[in-house]
From TrEMBL, chain A:
InterPro entries: ABC_transp_permease, BCAA_transport_permease. This is Branched-chain amino acid ABC transporter permease. PANTHER family: AMINO ACID ABC TRANSPORTER PERMEASE PROTEIN, BRANCHED-CHAIN AMINO ACID TRANSPORT SYSTEM PERMEASE PROTEIN LIVH. GO terms for cellular component: plasma membrane. GO terms for biological process: amino acid transport.
Length: 290, 664
């Protein structure tokens, strides 16, 4: 049981690492990146393509992947979101365009790389750590440490740096921020881009554990949305809590009821949260103005 | 235009639509009726189009009309297909009962989702449907009862890999699976398709269909037009889900076997693409979109295109069928948001509008338009008669509010307001910005529930009465910024003011007979009359979004009076009007007053207030500052101070004083 809980917490931190990108993007753009699964599989395959170049070293490869993923995020916003998100909340063209872009990328990746699973071969700490009855893979522990660090850095940056302040200003009220001389479009593109750092690093570390394949992203996409919904789409650090809850619930119910129910339980939990407390654990209830 | 002529024309169009579709269905069936092996794949294609079009019709109501985005339509197709098959295989239920239960199950589930997510908007609803669809997929692909990836039914568990052929009155409905037999099932599916499209057309043209558009535009507006928004969202979601369930049932009958891969998440996306390609929210769009996408998926052109890509571009980096659908979706969003049917009908509508010369430029400008005094006398007579008959009953305060207060968080918007409006009276609510005028109007119409105090309509406490029932009870209003269906015609906008908008059921929308027709005619006459009174009848066929701001206000006013309300609340009706439009407005208001309406206007335009109001209530900081006859209130020093600031008040009353008081 303790084994399941700890594993759930570590996997939950991976979900949180993806979820921080959704929260960052939502805060400044009121949109969610439905194509994030494609960014993840693209990052994993990019890391795979860099595998033969040993002189790059592992941090060097991850840095390249992260930089390119950042550019990918910026392009997704510029091409897929910015032209299609009006002021109305009924305007859902951006969802369709992101989903469509996702279809195109997934198709390209599938056609060019094939559906099989490849071994990444680096960015991994082999072995396990055993404390008492609990055995955890070192890679998962690494993922947990990296996730918490990245989310922590972004949370702190959003509080204590100038860019972070501007970002929060845009999140609060885009129009006013614009009048205050903040280049809101840069902030919006930036928040899509910066979120991809964590997404790509998470994808590389995870694929080092489970293998590189086009199907890498979609389960993580749903789990990360789940994490963000449970905690709140307006709190960056909060996703660690949301991810932990989602991870532990999924792991525990898989352990007790089997894999099908396990997969479903997290999703049902998220739907319940949306129905009962749409703003999430840390969210404030929005007042509607007529 | 005479009523008889329009009536016959609409009926004729209906018959033409039904006849045309039937002929089309028969022709398509005849091409495959031989059951020859060469026609099998075409028969399957036709059957699939007939089946999936139903699911897309559901999307067109749910997403296109009501604006409720869903990525879960494919999941309901799966639920319908698996439920029907399971009930037949496992319990041996007769097919008709299994079909009925499967479709009903989808409807109930859809209704529950709509009820539970009633508070959610846009992206959140999308996520719920996405998660729901994933849950369904996990269950059908992983639960052992459904055979996992062996599909359902499968020979290992069920002894056969195909559902038994359906028998109806001794005739077997043969699916197009083996050569040499007439694919009679396809004929039945085509029949269902024709009936569904006829029903969809009737429903879209009904008040029920129109009400969905108002929900998409603004739920606030919809509630103020008498619609129970949550309930209507539940019914449209249930309808869409039932249609998807029926599509699944037909799909299962068509292929006799279900594989979980057929119902992956991409199915929902593809159904959406079909809806958007055909024209989301149009009648024929679903058929056109579904036919094109399914045909593309099976046609050799896509295979040839992929081959060409591989040769010309890259062996590795090419797009296959699903990627091409992604590209189509992107292109549609950018270049053709109205889809094929929507674009074509827009072009035709523009042409016929040009032919008739009905653009706003061609019309006499507001100044030259006949004043509403020139209304046909018969209408005037009828109305005064009606009104005077029940004027007795209405005498006295129709609307009264006493001691009402409301806070938002810690801010007190309204602290203590009491006022009443009598039948045949115009009460003006004035006061500086932020005084709480609009909040009072919003509490009366049911946007907000006051924290304290009571609001009564004809003596009835409105405390727990929601906005839509207040509208049905006779309170109509306009908004500070007009909320119109900008893409629809002016007359449709005014028709949205009909009482039947909120009360008509979808059943009556589809199956309504002569009485529903008469109701529709009466609503149309009332809408035309209302438009005539605001002087905009000439513009009835124009797109509301093409009108000037002042005229849009006129349309909104016409919508408010179309249902002959008892109380009319106008939130700054003169804002944005030019002088002559304002004059027309005040004439109309006085006329409405004389007919016995109780009118409350929230207004800054003092000339209008002076010309129309019988009494004035001035608010400041959420309290009544002064109330009484216009001259008294407007010359009240406190009112002047509140309105113009202390200096102005001092200057007007005591020109020599130089003391500057702080603004209250």
């Amino acid at each position: 049981m303790l084994q399941q809980i700890l594993t759930g917490l570590l996997i939950g931190s991976l979900y949180a690492l993806i979820a921080q990108s959704a929260v960052l993007a939502y805060m400044t753009t009121r949109t969610i990146n439905f194509a994030v699964a494609s960014v993840m599989s693209a990052s994993a395959f990019l890391a795979l393509a860099l595998a033969p170049f040993d002189w790059l070293t592992t941090p060097g490869r991850i840095a390249i992947v992260a930089i390119l993923a950042t550019a990918f995020g910026a392009v997704l916003f510029r091409v897929g979101v910015a032209p299609f998100s009006g002021s109305s909340e009924h305007d859902i063209r951006w969802i369709l365009s992101l989903v469509a872009l996702g279809l195109v990328f997934d198709d390209l990746i599938l056609n060019s790389q094939g559906g099989q699973v490849h071994r990444l071969g680096y960015a991994t700490i082999p072995g396990t750590l055993t404390i008492g009855d609990v055995t955890l893979s070192n890679q998962l522990i690494l993922i947990g440490v990296v996730s918490v660090s990245i989310i922590g850095i972004i949370e702190l940056a959003s509080r204590y740096t100038g860019i972070g302040l501007r970002m929060r200003a845009v999140a609060e009220d885009r129009g006013t921020a614009e009048l205050m001389g903040i280049r809101t479009n840069r902030i919006r593109i930036g928040s899509y881009a910066v979120g991809m750092i964590g997404v790509s690093i998470g994808a590389v570390l995870w694929s080092a554990q489970v293998g590189v394949s086009p199907a890498l992203g979609s389960p993580l996409l749903l789990a990360s949305f789940g994490a963000a919904i449970i905690s709140s789409f307006t709190s960056i650090g909060g996703v660690l809590v949301g991810g932990a809850i989602f991870g532990v619930v999924t792991q525990l119910s898989s352990y007790i009821f089997g894999s099908a129910i396990g997969q479903v339980s997290g999703l049902i939990l998220v739907i319940l949260v949306l129905v009962l407390r749409p703003q999430g654990i840390f969210g404030k209830r929005a007042l509607e103005k007529v | 235009m005479s009523k008889v002529a329009t009536f016959n024309k609409t009926r004729l169009k209906g018959f033409a639509f039904a006849g045309g579709l039937t002929i089309l269905a028969v022709v398509f069936y005849l091409t495959v009726s031989s059951g020859a092996g060469s026609a099998l794949s075409q028969a399957q294609l036709i059957g699939q189009v007939a089946a999936l079009t139903l699911a897309v019709v559901g999307i067109t109501f749910l997403v296109g009309r009501a604006g409720m985005p869903s990525l879960g339509q494919g999941a309901f197709v799966a639920i319908g297909a698996y439920t029907m098959s399971y009930l037949r295989m496992q319990y041996g239920w007769p097919t008709w009962l299994a079909v009925l239960v499967a479709v009903a199950a989808c409807a109930v589930l859809g209704g529950i989702i709509a009820w539970a997510t009633g508070r959610l908007r846009g992206p959140q609803l999308v996520i719920v449907t996405l998660f729901g669809a994933t849950i369904v997929y996990v269950l059908i692909s992983q639960l052992p009862v459904f055979g996992q990836f062996a599909g359902y039914p499968n020979s290992e568990q069920n002894g056969t890999s195909s559902l038994p052929v359906v028998q109806v009155f001794g005739i077997s409905l043969t699916p197009p699976l083996s050569a040499g037999q007439a694919p009679t099932l396809v004929a039945v599916l085509l029949g269902v398709l024709v009936l569904t499209l006829i029903g969809a057309r009737r429903l879209m043209r009904s008040k029920w269909g129109l009400s969905l558009l108002t929900i998409k535009e603004s739920e606030l507006l919809a509630a103020h037009l008498g619609i129970n928004v949550l309930w209507r969202k539940i019914s449209v979601f249930a309808l869409a889900s039932a249609l998807a369930g029926m599509a699944g049932v037909e799909y299962a009958l068509l292929f006799g076997h279900l594989q979980p891969e057929s119902f992956v998440f991409v199915l929902s996306i593809n159904l959406l693409v079909m809806a958007i390609l055909g024209g989301n929210g149009t009648v024929l769009g679903p058929l056109v979109g579904t036919a094109i996408i399914l045909w593309l998926q099976t046609s050799p052109y896509v295979t040839n295109f992929v081959k060409w890509e591989q040769k010309a571009i890259s062996h590795q980096w090419y797009l296959s069928s699903q990627g091409i659908i992604g590209v189509i979706l992107i292109l549609l969003i950018i270049f053709m948001r109205e889809g094929i049917v929507g674009t074509v009908s827009r072009v035709f509508a523009n042409r016929s509008a040009k032919r008739r010369g009905r653009t706003e430029q061609h019309l006499p400008s507001a100044e030259q338009q006949p004043a509403p005094i020139d209304e046909p006398p018969y209408i005037e007579e009828r109305n005064t008669e009606e009104r005077s008959a029940d004027k007795e009953v209405r005498a006295g305060a129709v609307l009264s509010i006493s001691g009402v207060g409301l806070s938002f968080g810690g801010i007190r918007a309204v602290t203590d307001v009491s006022l009443s409006v009598d039948a045949g009276e115009i009460l003006a609510l004035i006061g500086p910005n932020g005084a709480g005028k609009s909040t009072v109007a919003n509490m009366i119409s049911g946007v907000y529930t006051p924290d304290r105090g009571t609001i009564t309509l004809n003596g009835r406490d409105l405390k727990s009465v929601p906005a839509h029932l207040r509208r049905r009870g006779g309170i109509a209003r306009t908004f500070q910024a007009p909320i119109l269906l900008l893409d629809r015609s002016v007359i449709e906008n005014v028709l949205a003011g009909s009482k039947s908008l909120g009360t008509q059921s979808w059943f009556r929308g589809i199956f309504g007979g002569p009485s529903a027709h008469r109701q529709g005619e009466a609503d149309l006459a009332a809408a035309q009359h209302a438009l005539e009174r605001v002087g905009l009848l000439e513009l009835a066929e124009l797109r509301a979004g093409d009108l000037s701001y002042g005229r849009q206000r006129g349309v909104e006013l016409a919508r408010a009076i179309a249902s002959s309300p008892e109380v009319l609340i106008l939130d700054e009706p003169a804002a944005g009007l030019n002088a002559s439009e304002a004059a027309t407005l005040s004439t109309l208001l006085l006329r409405l007053r004389d007919e016995g309406l109780a009118i409350l206007i929230v207004e800054h335009d003092m000339p209008l207030v002076r010309r129309t109001a019988g009494r004035i209530v001035c608010l400041a900081s959420g309290q009544v500052l002064a109330s009484g006859l216009p001259d008294e209130v407007l010359s009240d020093k406190r009112v002047m101070r509140a309105y113009l600031g202390s200096i102005a008040a001092e200057i007007t009353s005591e020109p020599k004083s130089s003391v500057v008081e702080p603004i209250a």
